[in-house]
């Protein structure tokens, strides 16, 4: 019983840290690219607005980076503290990308420090802009390496187990595992997409509040365009992810689609709830769609949950998470598409209050989708921490103090979350764009 | 050289790097808070801010590098230390989180209140205290092994004089290292008032730092005789370290070449730190874990070493650029550029 508790609390603490960290991590991966785009446009078009955009985004970015750094350190250490058995095994096989992630982050941290303090040091602004390239590369590669580790947890390979001993370890084979391509691509695309829409939300919010400044319109158009490109990319990658799951983790796909019986020409279940007998109620069934998603062929056979023992099946509530993620993804893509097309056709309804409200919602919605996606990825891998090799319940720490730590960290994240919000809001309220633009003009 | 020896040496170097940069950082935070408390803020605040601003993130990475690296090279440490360190390491994470984020909040955001300066400054002293516990635990005698698990013997750890000597050593050396560095930094910035004040702090903290260091060797004799004897075998390394300590003090006393003083101090700590490490060899955790038993596979070790060399080739020029722009740039130091 005691052992059971430490597993539960370890899971809760890990989930809590990841849920909190992923917001800041996503922004940390995506925003450098957007700052780079804005600064590049500003230099190319000799447009002060884009330069100011880059400056203001950087100022906010640094706050989120700070929280991302400290929560990233927390999750890195917590993996060892809460899952010592898993990390001992993982350390033997998948340590390489973890190790390289620190280098990528090191690289990013150094150049971010330089970038921040050298706005006015270079005669040639391009030189200053170039400093962002290592920042963006470091940020993106941090995500790539960490996602490789997560992919390994889903499709472990590159080693053999013999009487409980690891032999024939091949670090590169472990790194480039089957789950890696779709997972890495999906994480990167959605991080860029989410960051773009968060910044779009801010611009739309300013316009909704009555600011008519061209600065906000430029910001909105730039961010929605970038967000749209990556949301379309995310949708395409999603299709590949379905095919990957069908081939390598069919139980995860079956659980998230509530696909109970192995059959050909399988329909895709959208929405719905499960009743007590595990029958699906109130759902929409798209005929053949699951077979197409899984195998690209409407008549293909899709493996159902009936092929698995009960103790090997993930919790069925991941279907809701999957739906939330997909619906938000499609909805946000659609809003972005309307905005870009209408802007091209010079329709003015996109600057009406109701449409701006929709745009304001895109950022928060994307964050919800990111959370749902990570919960889906992690809960969908249960009961395994390392699929097929090590069960979550056997990997947790045996310490009896996890619950106290959980409460401490809840308090920490509340403080950090609220403080970072207050700081960000105050930072931009005290120094609105209009004022800063005048200062630039006034100052020469 | 065997792979495990390369591995532990690289990690030990990074831990040393962390100890130096983090000490400067923690000490600077403390001196700043202290200066606010005694209303001497105007003297050293500027110097400290100008140093800390561009490098605070980099400090943290050294620590992350160390613990990711040690789990990579010695995966069994994840099991042993991961299990026993839950409470002390969690507390250290929380303190690091508060400290790191509030630094950014106050510097880049407009959160300005003396309370945060105090919180920031004094939490910086608790972090080395909580992290140094790991060194105490590694000496053995604080881990209870039951048939299915291992656990930390909190009471014993809390009551041990060794624990407290190591904690005090961590605090005194943090303040000493930081004060010497800031003396040099202030003198490079041609800020005489700040240089004098930091020099005074450096001299004040030098004595307790060396006394506690010597005290620990005595404590170890009672606690872990095996380790103590191995340290005595390396007496000459500690002797060199002590001579370097005297040289730093002399330079500070004579107000001469503060830059050299800091380099000598770094060497002093480097030699003592390696003498300690070598005498600890081959144990990672007395008596459960040695570096050969806990070592990863050959393939992984090779991969990690290659990755390390490649990464190092990227990092060294980047760090050089950072230092060139902020530590050794005259205009920046003297506050002429922003």
From TrEMBL, chain A:
<keyword id="KW-0812">Transmembrane</keyword>
<feature type="transmembrane region" description="Helical">
    <location>
        <begin position="61"/>
        <end position="82"/>
    </location>
</feature>
<feature type="transmembrane region" description="Helical">
    <location>
        <begin position="94"/>
        <end position="117"/>
    </location>
</feature>
<feature type="transmembrane region" description="Helical">
    <location>
        <begin position="354"/>
        <end position="377"/>
    </location>
</feature>
<keyword id="KW-0408">Iron</keyword>
<keyword id="KW-0479">Metal-binding</keyword>
<protein>
    <submittedName>
        <fullName>Cytochrome ubiquinol oxidase subunit I</fullName>
    </submittedName>
</protein>
<keyword id="KW-0249">Electron transport</keyword>
<feature type="transmembrane region" description="Helical">
    <location>
        <begin position="129"/>
        <end position="153"/>
    </location>
</feature>
<dbReference type="Pfam" id="PF01654">
    <property type="entry name" value="Cyt_bd_oxida_I"/>
</dbReference>
<keyword id="KW-0813">Transport</keyword>
<feature type="transmembrane region" description="Helical">
    <location>
        <begin position="404"/>
        <end position="425"/>
    </location>
</feature>
<feature type="transmembrane region" description="Helical">
    <location>
        <begin position="184"/>
        <end position="207"/>
    </location>
</feature>
<keyword id="KW-1133">Transmembrane helix</keyword>
<dbReference type="InterPro" id="IPR002585">
    <property type="entry name" value="Cyt-d_ubiquinol_oxidase_su_1"/>
</dbReference>
<keyword id="KW-0472">Membrane</keyword>
<feature type="transmembrane region" description="Helical">
    <location>
        <begin position="20"/>
        <end position="41"/>
    </location>
</feature>
<comment type="similarity">
    <text>Belongs to the cytochrome ubiquinol oxidase subunit 1 family.</text>
</comment>
<keyword id="KW-1003">Cell membrane</keyword>
<keyword id="KW-0349">Heme</keyword>
<feature type="transmembrane region" description="Helical">
    <location>
        <begin position="317"/>
        <end position="342"/>
    </location>
</feature>
<feature type="transmembrane region" description="Helical">
    <location>
        <begin position="219"/>
        <end position="238"/>
    </location>
</feature>
From TrEMBL, chain B:
<dbReference type="Pfam" id="PF02322">
    <property type="entry name" value="Cyt_bd_oxida_II"/>
</dbReference>
<keyword id="KW-1003">Cell membrane</keyword>
<feature type="transmembrane region" description="Helical">
    <location>
        <begin position="260"/>
        <end position="279"/>
    </location>
</feature>
<feature type="transmembrane region" description="Helical">
    <location>
        <begin position="51"/>
        <end position="73"/>
    </location>
</feature>
<keyword id="KW-1133">Transmembrane helix</keyword>
<feature type="transmembrane region" description="Helical">
    <location>
        <begin position="158"/>
        <end position="182"/>
    </location>
</feature>
<protein>
    <submittedName>
        <fullName>Cytochrome d ubiquinol oxidase subunit II</fullName>
    </submittedName>
</protein>
<comment type="similarity">
    <text>Belongs to the cytochrome ubiquinol oxidase subunit 2 family.</text>
</comment>
<feature type="transmembrane region" description="Helical">
    <location>
        <begin position="118"/>
        <end position="138"/>
    </location>
</feature>
<feature type="transmembrane region" description="Helical">
    <location>
        <begin position="202"/>
        <end position="222"/>
    </location>
</feature>
<feature type="transmembrane region" description="Helical">
    <location>
        <begin position="6"/>
        <end position="31"/>
    </location>
</feature>
<dbReference type="InterPro" id="IPR003317">
    <property type="entry name" value="Cyt-d_oxidase_su2"/>
</dbReference>
<keyword id="KW-0472">Membrane</keyword>
<feature type="transmembrane region" description="Helical">
    <location>
        <begin position="234"/>
        <end position="253"/>
    </location>
</feature>
<keyword id="KW-0812">Transmembrane</keyword>
<feature type="transmembrane region" description="Helical">
    <location>
        <begin position="299"/>
        <end position="323"/>
    </location>
</feature>
<feature type="transmembrane region" description="Helical">
    <location>
        <begin position="79"/>
        <end position="98"/>
    </location>
</feature>
